[in-house]
Amino acid sequence: MVKIKVDEDACVGCGSCVEDCPSDVYELDSEHGKTVVVNEKDCMACLSCHEICPSQALEHDDIHVAKRLYIDRKVNSTISKII
């Protein structure tokens, strides 16, 4: 199971993660206007919430997101033709 932390100071309450999560892991707390984790066990670690969060308020323990440092243009070109 992935442990998810929401940085309440950073969260702007936009609800993007709530709308984007395919597993309904999050809800927007209407009282505080912040995202809360409600179904952590259902998280499949797709990190779509992490990517869409404008304030980078979400952290998944033991999962480290790294930027791609290398892009193979030939592979990308081939994939583009298939897709």
TrEMBL record:
Keyword check for Signal: no
Stretches assigned to the 4Fe-4S ferredoxin-type domain: 2-31, 34-63
Keywords in alphabetical order: 4Fe-4S, Electron transport, Iron, Iron-sulfur, Metal-binding, Repeat, Transport
Any one GO molecular function term: 4 iron, 4 sulfur cluster binding
Coiled-coil residue windows: none
PROSITE patterns referenced in this protein's UniProt entry, alphabetically: 4FE4S_FER_1, 4FE4S_FER_2
Keyword Transmembrane helix belongs to the record: no
UniProt cross-references to InterPro entries, sorted A to Z: 4Fe4S_Fe-S-bd, 4Fe4S_Fe_S_CS, Fe-S_Ferredoxin
Name of the protein this chain belongs to: Ferredoxin
Organism: Methanobacterium bryantii
Lineage: Archaea, Methanobacteriati, Methanobacteriota, Methanomada group, Methanobacteria
